[in-house]
Specification:
61% of the residues lie in helices and 12% in strands. It has 322 residues and is α+β, with helices and mostly antiparallel strands.
């Protein structure tokens, strides 16, 4: 009976110690990181070098650690990295995350780019699933540092390989002979230009003189144009003014003549309709009268004045001889 009581007492003591140890562990967990904030980062590049427990820095200052690395099932090209940072770290809008690689040690997550006065990155109240698919805020990424270099290394090596192959094709024996010929021709051309240096200098001097003469001629043409404008302004404009006055006077005279013709039109019509026929009749009467006078004059000439009042004298009768 006494041995059984001892076992119960020992079991109770062990249970109490385990409970105290569990409470102590929970207290330590709360003391060490209970208030840390969690964020998700979605990378399209390789996260080689990162692992759970890797360091998270903000502008080079240690600020947290990586908690989880996993594929993002809706889009397999993305890798989700869950980090936890201290509450005093300013994760504001404008903050970006990049992978800081190292050849000698593990990679780390580098945070930077916070803007003064910007609000913190949080899940919105409206449609939170769109901005925070797993319930925690998302920090946007940027490619930079050694991580960017390592991610682009395969493409860079491929381009270097292509460039090397093209250089090899360019510098084969045939192209080398062509390049040698081009260099030889270039040397001969350079030598010919050096030999003709004085002639080229003389040609340039003549060209400079011609350009100067052309400039002088242009200036003279400008002066002539200004003089022509002055002549036109001083001589032609008064003449044009006189011509305008003459045209105005002629127009006024034409208007006066039109008015005079209009006033004389009734008299002209009367002359053509009445006076001219009467003059024609008078001329006809005068013609008849002149004919009569001519006949009287002829009678006076032949018979004298008596021929006008008596009948003409009959001729003497003479009997015919048988």
């Amino acid at each position: 009976m006494e041995t059984r009581s001892n076992h119960v007492l020992v079991g109770a003591v062990v249970l109490i110690l385990l409970a105290v140890l569990a409470l102590f562990i929970v207290w330590l967990a709360q003391l060490s990181g209970g208030n840390d904030r969690e964020y998700d980062i979605f990378y399209k590049q390789s996260v080689d070098g990162l692992s759970a427990g890797s360091q998270v820095t903000f502008s080079g200052v240690p600020s947290g650690q990586v908690k989880e690395i996993a594929f993002w099932q809706p889009d397999p090209s993305l890798v989700r990295v869950r980090i936890s940072v201290k509450p005093e770290v300013p994760i504001l809008e404008g903050t970006t995350a990049s992978i800081q690689g190292s050849f000698t040690g593990p990679s780390s997550v580098q945070l930077d780019g916070a803007t003064k006065g910007a609000p913190p990155i949080e899940c919105p109240r409206e449609r939170p699933r769109a901005a925070c698919p797993l319930g925690v805020p998302v920090i946007p990424t940027k490619t930079g540092g050694l991580g960017a270099l390592l991610s682009s290394a395969p493409r860079l090596l491929e381009r270097i390989s292509t460039l090397t192959e093209r250089l090899g094709t360019l510098l084969d024996d045939k192209n080398q002979a062509s390049i040698s010929g081009i260099l030889s021709n270039t040397n001969r051309l350079t030598k010919s230009l050096a030999d003709r240096g004085p002639e080229i200098a003389a040609t340039l001097a003549e060209t400079r003189t011609a350009i100067q003469q052309f400039g002088n001629a242009t200036e003279q043409i400008g002066t002539l144009a200004a003089t022509t404008n002055g002549v036109l302004s001083d001589d032609v404009r008064p003449t044009i003014a006189n011509l305008n006055r003459t045209i105005a006077s002629a127009r006024k005279s034409m208007e006066t003549l039109d008015a005079t013709i209009g006033d004389a039109r009734p008299g002209v019509q009367m002359l053509s309709k009445k006076t001219i026929p009467e003059i024609g009749q008078l001329v006809q009467d005068l013609r008849v009268m002149s004919t009569s006078l001519a006949s009287v004059a002829e009678k006076l000439d032949q018979g004298g004045a008596s021929s006008l009042v008596g009948s003409p004298k009959l001729p003497d009768y003479k009997p015919s001889k048988k």
